[in-house]
Write a structure and sequence with these properties.
Organism: Spiribacter pallidus
Pathway: Carbohydrate degradation; pentose phosphate pathway; D-ribose 5-phosphate from D-ribulose 5-phosphate (non-oxidative stage): step 1/1
Family: Belongs to the ribose 5-phosphate isomerase family.
CATH topology of the largest domain: Rossmann fold
Number of strands: 13
Distance between the termini: 27 Å
Strand order of the largest sheet: 2-1-3-6-12-13
Number of domains: 2
Number of helices: 6
Bound molecules: ribulose-5-phosphate
CATH class of the largest domain: Alpha Beta
Oligomer: single chain
Shape: globular
Binding site for substrate: 28-31, 81-84, 94-97, 121
Subunit structure: Homodimer.
CATH architecture of the largest domain: 3-Layer(aba) Sandwich
Length: 220
């Protein structure tokens, strides 16, 4: 089964977990696109969604689903999003699509975070995928030097600007064996908006598309 088919299967199981009449959070990326399409094709009629990217908002609206500003809600029933890597504690690296900051905000607003992935995203240790760090443009060189001091190899994501008008540094070689500590440490660097480690707010449930069906996990 292709990764695409695995993503589709996980997305469809996630749709079944969404209740009509609720306001939900919707992440971004190719797996989430499949979720949005599957939600629109289902009998589930949500009240509205808070979207983690302009691209997701546009896709939702294209299906006639209302998109509301995050400032208009106090809590979301559930957040559905993908990941670039996820471990058995359901801690993740996210931000391959550059939407990490808004994804973190929507995740923080949500009672439950359901992560949907194909099986290539499950890892025993986080860190093969370069860690995205969103940085205010003025701080680019400073933050890059600090990341090097921490053992990382940052690389500017060329020609890319986030929905918030910032840049992304993709960082290889950082030791991510203590993700909670690392997430906080990186966020403490002046000029960092946030980083793609989701350890302080891991997923509550993981749906993995595999060749033998969708496997469900909760944090180990
Ligand atoms: O964090 C993300 C975007 O910022 C995505 O969830 C992540 O990159 C996974 O994407 P895909 O579903 O396309 O594999």
């Amino acid at each position: 089964m292709s990764a695409e088919a695995q993503k589709q299967a996980a997305a469809e199981v996630a749709v079944a977990k969404v209740e009509s009449g609720t306001v939900i959070g919707v992440g971004s990326g190719s797996t989430v696109n499949l979720f949005i399409d599957a939600l629109a094709a289902s009998d589930t009629r949500i009240e509205a969604a808070v979207a983690a990217s302009e691209a997701s908002a546009e896709r939702l609206r294209g299906h006639g689903i209302d998109v509301v500003d995050a400032n208009r809600v106090t809590e979301l029933a559930v957040y559905i999003d993908g990941a670039d890597e996820i471990n058995r504690h359901l801690q993740m690296i996210k931000g391959g699509g550059g939407a990490l900051t808004r994804e973190k905000i929507v995740a923080a607003l949500s009672k439950r975070f359901i992560c949907i992935v194909d099986e290539s995203k499950r890892v025993t240790a986080l860190g093969d995928f370069p860690l995205p760090v969103e940085v205010i443009p003025m701080a680019r060189s400073y933050v890059a030097r600090e990341l090097v001091k921490l053992g990382g190899r940052p690389e500017l994501r060329e020609g890319f600007t986030t929905d918030n008008g910032n840049i992304i540094l993709d960082v290889r070689s950082l030791d991510l064996s203590k993700p909670l500590h690392r997430e906080q440490e990186l966020n403490n660097l002046a000029g960092v908006v946030t980083n793609g480690l989701f350890a302080l707010r891991p997923a509550d449930e993981l749906l993995v598309g595999t060749d033998t069906g969708v496997q469900r996990f909760t944090a180990a």
